[in-house]
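Hi Q.,

Before the meeting this afternoon, I wanted you to have the NAP prediction in hand. No need to reply - just skim if you have a minute. The sequence and ligand are here:
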Amino acid sequence: MSAARVPVDLHDRTAFVTGGTGGMGRVITTELARAGAHVVTTSRDHDRGQMLQRQVAREIGADRVEVLTGDLTSRADLHRLAAEFTARHDRLHLLVNNAGAHYRERLLTADGVEAHLAVNHLAGFTLTYLLERHLLAAGNARVVNVVSATMSDARPVPLFGRPQPVPLDLSRVTDVRDLNPADGYVPFAAYARAKLLATICGYEFAERWHDVGITVNAVHPGIVSTGIIDDLVPAILAPFRSLIHQRLLTPEQGAEAALRLATAPDLAGITGRYYVRDRETRSPDVSYDAATRAAAWKLSLIWANAVV
Ligand SMILES: NC(=O)c1ccc[n+]([C@@H]2O[C@H](COP(=O)([O-])OP(=O)(O)OC[C@H]3O[C@@H](n4cnc5c(N)ncnc54)[C@H](OP(=O)(O)O)[C@@H]3O)[C@@H](O)[C@H]2O)c1
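Predicted structure with the ligand bound:
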């Protein structure tokens, strides 16, 4: 039996999971479908999406998973994906912003945004924002943002010394394209900063939706043996890659944390929290700073809202 199995009945529920064809996203998608939900997921690659659908059809049943094709670093694709979802569904009970990536070098998206920021923060922010009406229609929807504890300690090899939260100063930033600039760029910190922004804006969504029944929480899943690890492991540790993978959580174990936040009955109504696996934890101090939160929200909203 999968370690990640969901203990509640999700028939008549609709879920949207980003990045369902790989790593933990595949497990989250499959287990939500196994529990009865109709799951919509995304993939950049049509064929990988079809493979997932065939796998779920074999294991669970046909037509349980729908795959939308798109690149989550593209604002036009995000708007199209949201439009495709809303055209086919009238409610959204569970949104799991799972997709994420780490890049070894500084890349810009077609929109001119640094790529870590685009996929790890702006994608989830934009979908959450665009799907608000459908989340509201569900009555008591849950949003789960899969973030990373790297925001609390952005040292690539944290063996000695004190944790170093990733720096974030938005006081002079007027455009998301100015975040994670080329000057002083460190990939690991750029990834961590994007996760921090996802966490901060999740707190703001949670507050705004406090009285309407939509909960929003963030979770670090643990260190999990998936594709992203190969991009995250510093080059100096590359010879030990397979040894490292053996010591990590499996994707099934890693997916448990997001599945729990998305479905556990005892977490109903819990919102605006950050968890490391199943333990509620404090995120970096700057994430509780009101001015930073207001600035992160405004920058992200302007970007998400722009007509494309
Ligand atoms: N593994 C860990 O130790 C760890 C730790 C902390 C947080 N996380 C977070 O956990 C989440 C899941 O990651 P994972 O570990 O399962 O990694 P993974 O196996 O690399 O899966 C990442 C997923 O995101 C999708 N994705 C990446 N870039 C995309 C893009 N531009 N457009 C659309 N989809 C895109 C991938 O789709 P493709 O198949 O198209 O590439 C894949 O399905 C991520 O948010 C990651 O940051 C992971």
